[in-house]
Amino acid sequence: MAEQGTTNRQFSIEYRQYLDVQGKPLGPLPPDSSESDLLLNAYRNMVLTRALDKKAVALQRTGQMGTYAAALGQEAIGTAIGYAMEADDVFVPAYRDQAAQIIRGVKLEEILAFWGGSERGSDFQGPRRDLPNCIPVATQISHAAGVATALKLRHPGQVVVASCGDGATSRGDFYEGLNVAGVWQLPLILVINNNQWAISVRRQYQTASASLAQKAIAAGIPGIQVDGNDFIALHDALTVALKRARKGKGATLIEAVSYRLCDHTTADDATRYRSADELNEAWTREPVKRLQSCLHDNQLWDAGQEQALQASCRQQVDQAAQDFLSREPEAAHSMFRYLYAEWPASYAYQEQLLEEKLARQSQEGQQHEH
Amino acid sequence: MNTEARIQSENATPAAAPAEAPRTMVEAINLALARAMQDDDDVVLLGEDVGVNGGVFRATAGLRQRFGLQRVMDTPLAESMIAGLSVGMATQGLKPVAEIQFMGFVYAAMEHLISHAARMRNRSRGRLHCPMVLRAPYGGGIHAPEHHSESTEALFAHTPGLRVVIPSSPRRAYGLLLSAIADPDPVIFLEPKRIYRAVRHPLVDDGQALPLDVCFTLRQGEDLTLLSWGAMIPECQRAAARLADGGISVELIDVASISPLDMDTMIQSVRKTGRCLIVHEAARSCGVGAEIAAGIGEHCLLNLLAPVRRVCGFDVPMPYFQNENNYLPNTSDVVAAAMELMSYNGE
Known about the structure:
The complex is a heterodimer. Chain A has 2 domains: 14-326, Rossmann fold, CATH 3.40.50; 335-369. By secondary structure, chain A is α/β, with parallel strands linked by helices. In chain A, the strands form 2 sheets. In chain A, strands 1-7-8-4-3-2 form a 6-stranded parallel β-sheet, sandwiched between helices. The longest helix of chain A is centred in the first third of the chain and has 24 residues, at 38-61. Helices cover 46% and strands 9% of the residues of chain A. Chain A contains 14 helices and 8 strands. Chain A starts with 13 loop residues before the first strand and ends with a helix. Chain B is of the alpha/beta class. The termini of chain B are far apart. The chains are: A alpha/beta, B alpha/beta. The interface between A and B is large, with 45 and 48 residues.
C-alpha cells in the first residue's frame, strides 16, 4: 500500500509541432516528411479540399445543394489521416472529413451527392469498407471500436482511424468507445478535430479538461496533442500511432488543435458568436499557407506550379459539380428498395400507396401545365 | 451459411438424428446460440456478463468454454457501446449477437439501433449492412426490481429497418433465434423472461429454423380471433381453452414477428371469425395492438361483427412488483373481453 501523501500516478500530455506558423521548421523534421512527394501530395489535397468546399458552399448559396459542412482551416487533419492510412485500413468519419475521404478514393461527386440529398453519396465506389459520414455526434466512435474488433479477429495488422470533433468528447459514446478500445487493445486511432467550436459553444465551455488528449489517460491509452494546422506533425503522430496499432499494441487518441475558419455549416452564421478579431488571428495559423511556405522555402514549389494547381482543382470541382447536378434522381421507390435484403411482404401495400401518390402527382402536374 | 443451406446440410447428414429432449425456453435459446456459432464462425456473442457468468439468466451458459474468449465477449458496462460495437462489427462481416441484460436498460442503445443499425443498408445503398441480433429479456411477472420488467417493444416496432421478434415457446425461441441470427438485417429479439422456465417442451436440436415476418396460428377457430405474443400467449391459450368449454371457438395467433407485421394472416383470420381481440402486456396507447387494430379496421370493416378490442397493460410505468399482477393482463381478463365481443349487439 502506498504511503499517505505520496503520488500514486502521474501523467503528462505531449504536444507535437514541427512547423511554426510561417512554415519554418522548429527543429529537425521527422524522416517521413522527406519521403518523395508526401508534402507535395498533401499540399495538393489540401488545396483541392478547399476548392471543393468553396464550390459546395457556392452551390448551396444558389439553391443547388443542401446544407454543407466545410472544413476550412482544418484541411491538414483529414489530409494527414488519408496519407497515413493504408488502402485496406478502415476509415470511420464524422461529417467534416472530406480531405481524408478524397485520398481514400471517395469521389468528389459522391461527397456532393451526400450533402445534395441522395443516399447514393454514401455508396462509395472506392473504399467499400469505410463507414459513411456520421451525423449523430460521437456515435461513430463506438462503431469504430466494433470495426476494430472485427479487424482484430479477422484481419490482424489492419487498423481503424476514426475522427470526431471537440464537442463529441463530451458525449458518452466518446468515453465508452475509448474505454473498450483500451480494455481490448483495439487497433483504433481516434483523431479529434478540435476546431474550437461546437456550433456556437467554444472549447472552454465544452469541458474543464485542460486538453482533450488527456481524456485518453482514463481509458489507459496514449493521448497526444498535435498542432492540427501542421501537416508534418499530424502525419508523424498518426504514423507512430498506426504502427503501434498494427503491432497489436492498441489504440491512440490524437487531439489535433485547429480552428474552424468557416461557419459550422451553411445553415450557421458564426458572426453571431465570435469576433472578427478572433477569426483574423486564427487565419494567421491556417494550414494551407503554412505548408505552401514550407514547400517554397525548400524550393519544392513556385508560382507557376501554384497557378497550375489552382486551375486543375477548379476544373476537378467544376466537373464534379456538373456530374452531381446532371445525375438523374433515383426513382421514388428507392426509399423501399434498400431497407431490407429481402422485402417484407407487408411493404407491398405501402408501395401501392406510393404508386398512387406518384400517379396523382403526375396528374396534378399535367393539369398544372395545362 | 444461410438458414436454408444449413437445414439442407443437416438433412444431408446421415448421422443419427439428435435426440428429442424436454427443454425450457432459456435452454432452447442457449441451444440455438450454440448451433449458430458452431455452423458459422462469423457469429460472435457480446454483452454484460455473457462470458464467464453465462448471462444473468444463463442464456449463454457454457458458450465461452466451448467457443473461446474471442467469440464470447464480456463487454464493459455500457449499453450504447454494446449496440455501437455491434453495428461496427456487423459492417465488417461479423454477425454479432448482443445481449442487453434487461429491456429496461436498452434505451441507452436506442440511438445506435434507430440511427445506425436500422438504416445502414439503406443509407449506403446496400454497400454495408448490419446482420446483428440484439437480445433482451423483457416483460413483467417475475417480481423483479424497478426497470427490470419493461415491455416497450413498440419503440422498436416503430423503427423501419429493424425486425422485432418475440418467441412464446421453447420451440419458437429456438427456431426464430436461428433465423434472426441468419438474417442479413438487424433483429431485436425480445425474450419473455416470465416464461423462460415456465414450461418444458420436447425439442430437437436439429438446426431447424422458423420463418420471420409471419404469424403462427396456434389454434384454429371460427368465432373469434385472438392475437397476442410473448408471455401473454400462455394466458391466451388458457383463455381459449376456457372459452371452448363454453362453446366459443377461438382462433389463436402468435404474432411472433411484431415488425414487420404479417397483417395478411391476421386479416384472413378476422374475415373468417368477424371478431378480433388483441392482447399485449405493453401499455395500451400506441402499442403494437393499436397498429394491428388499425390494419384490421382498414381491411376488415364489413366483416366485423363487433369492434376490435384490446386487452393491454395500462398507460402507466410498470408498477413495482407488489402491484404488477394488477397491471398484467391475465386469463380472466382475456375471457371477459372475449365474452363481451361475443355478446356485442351494437349498443
